[in-house]
Amino acid sequence: MQLIIEAIGFGIATGAVIALGAVGFSVQFGISNILNITYGALMTLSAYIGLVLINHGINAWAALAISAVAVGAVSVIYHRILLAPLVRRGTRAIAMIIVTVSAGTILQYVIVAIAGPSSQSYGEQSGQTFHFLDLTLSFGQVTIIVLTAILMLALHLLLTRTTLGKAMRATSSNRTLARSCGIATSRISDIAWFISGCLCGAAGVALAITTVSFDFSLGALFLIPMIAAAVLGGIGQPYGAMLGGMIIGISSEVAAAVSNPNYKDVVAFVILIIVLLVRPRGLFGAAWSSRRLMEG
Amino acid sequence: MAWEYYLVVMLVYLGTDLLAVWGLNLEFGVAGIANLAYIVVVAAGAYAYAIVTLGPSSGNGGFQTYIGGFTLPFPLALLVGAAAGALVGTLIGLTGLKRLRQDYQGVAMLVVSLMVTTIVSADIGLFNGTAGLALIPNPFSNLDPDTARWAYVALVAVCCLIGFVVLRRFTTGPMGRTLRAMRDDDTAASAAGKDVVRLRLVVQAVGGAFGGLSGALLAGFIGGWSPSAWAYIETLAFLSCIIVGGRGSDLGVSLGTLIIAVLLLQGVQFLPQIASSPGLSEDFGWIILGAATIAFIWFRPQGVLKERRPRYRGESPSKLPG
User: Fold this and answer.
1) Local structure of residue A130 (DSSP, 8 states)
2) What φ, ψ does residue A131 adopt, rounded to 5°?
3) Cβ atoms of B181 and B188 closer than 8 Å
4) DSSP state, B260?
5) What ranges do the domains of chain A cover?
6) Which helix (H) or strand (E) holds A137?
7) Do A186 and A175 touch, CB atoms closer than 8 A?
8) I need a labelling partner for B81 at 20 to 30 A (CA). Which of A70, A244, B16, B263 fits?
9) In angstroms, rounded to a whole number, what is the distance separating the alpha carbons of residues B133 and B223?
10) Which residues of B touch A35 (CB under 8 A)?
11) What ipTM was estimated for this complex?
12) Are B286 and B233 a contacting pair, CB within 8 Å?
């Protein structure tokens, strides 16, 4: 029993990182209708930017913030100069997915060429631990959980309480209609890609902090739980992605505790397949998102 | 002689890549299925070939563990490889039972590819984990080495010939037209009475058989097979051959295979080596491959050799738009 309670604590920390990533991925799909696989490689990029900063003596949390903003900027540029023009030229979704996989591969191998293929580590974080009920968590894990909670709350307030958030939601649900209402949809897109890029960057560094060591495949492997979380919550739905991240994080840590830790991601995978076969629009998917995901 | 050995290797790689690219082009280029897990069917064929030719896992001192363990003659083992590819291809195709958007299903299949690699790497009992399987018997090992090498080239060539004949049954004629209709507008195809979900499963089974045969031939030639040989980006290499060559055109993708899989990915090995970072030329290969794929989608989405637009009776060629 103690084992399971500890696993739940770890699961909340894992789920927080997954939620950070999945929300950004989901926002990008919602706003631009693009499933951006480059997201994984951008997380890897962020982890390596963080590594350089930490090696220069910068505090890990400052490094997280800097990397997040940097990846946010890269995401906006990436969308502006490659993805958006391709969509305007009428490139079909099936080709766009290959573009984002190709761009991810390029980025991943540029990172390998510069940083080398060997494993990296942020080094020992503060050894302080926290005890809450029966849960034991490291300082890093607690900070990431709190940070995720703050970022999610901030995103919630942005989407519901500000004009900008309203414009983002409008663009997400019907781009053409939003534009006819006078919303500058391309500027809204830029902002949404910046915010989601920041989440991607934050998730990359947070993931590197919580793992013992990482290499260039960090982001690619993270695609399994992240896509599972986004799809479970209903892709394009930020709240769904938050909940999906928590469900995937906790269930995979519990499964890893009671069985083989190598099979941690299998739970995420099984959930993904069941959702695809039973309810492809996910838990929170509205009818319009169902229409968008299915053909015909 | 060294160059002769190198030529044999190139020819075998070309042949096996052709089979895989043809299979994926049937799925992606002709039927419009973005199968980002295609390399998994190649791996299935290779592992299936390995375990039906290696004999019991207690052999060779029992240094590797795997399921099965038979000693079938090689023509049968190749068929087993193709069958394993078809089976795994169909299983992957089940992700599309709900008729998802093709990019959405593509992402699901990408996750399948990542997941299968993780499982096979982690589970030693399945196919010997990360270390992979070694000492897979070459069917011509009792001939003298030179003859054996060219015999293998001949075997691959025969498989390609048979493969091409089978391929044309699916990419031309009524079946080819049906699949292209489904690719271009699957609502219209279903309205015309085509069972889109079933057709996609059939295509993924046939494409899977091509991939499985390719993997089996590769495993028999190299003599080993491990998870590092089938990372998810290998699928991108095949897709790149298709996009550069001309999606949907059997001849085009064959040309694309020659350009990307042989000239580019093998050619980068001739770049000057830098002693401090030995893997650098291979990294460059992948960077160029990704850039070429994006450049073609941007500047020339139809590829080097454009898919021929079919002409129908009563339609005058001059009236054709575009």
Assistant:
1) E
2) -115, 125
3) yes
4) I
5) 2-121+139-293
6) strand A135-138
7) no
8) B263
9) 8
10) 103-104, 106-107
11) 0.92
12) yes
The predicted model gives A270-293 an average pLDDT of 77
pLDDT tens digit sequence for A27-66: 999 899 999 999 999 999 999 999 999 999 999 999 999 9
Between positions 28 and 57 of A, the ones with CB within 8 A of B are: 35, 37
Chain B interface includes A112 (CB < 8 A): yes
SS3 state at B118: helix
> Which residues lie across from A30 on neighbouring strands?
none
Task: Give the CATH class of A2-121+139-293.
Answer: mainly alpha
Q: Tell the burial category of A157 from Cβ atoms under 10 Å away from its Cβ (0-12, 13-18, 19+).
A: exposed
Decide if A290 touches B, using CB distance below 8 A: no
- Comparing alpha-carbon positions, the chain B residue that sits nearest to A267 is B115
Three-state helix/strand/coil letters over B26-89: HHHHHCCCCCCCHHHHHHHHHHHHHHHHCCCCCHHHHCCCECCCCCCCHHHHHHHHHHHHHHHH
Report pLDDT for B318: 54
- Helix (H), strand (E) at residue B282: helix B280-299
Give dist(CA B220, CA B74) in Å, integer.
Answer: 9
Q: Measured between beta carbons, which residues in chain A are less than 8 angstroms from residue B102?
A: 93-94, 295
Identify the residue whose tokens are 């400052």. A62
| Cβ pair B236:A102 closer than 8 A | yes
For a pLDDT cut of 70, what percent of chain B falls above it?
95
Nearest by Cα to B216 from B311, B318, B76: B76
pLDDT band for position B322 (cuts 50, 70, 90)? very low
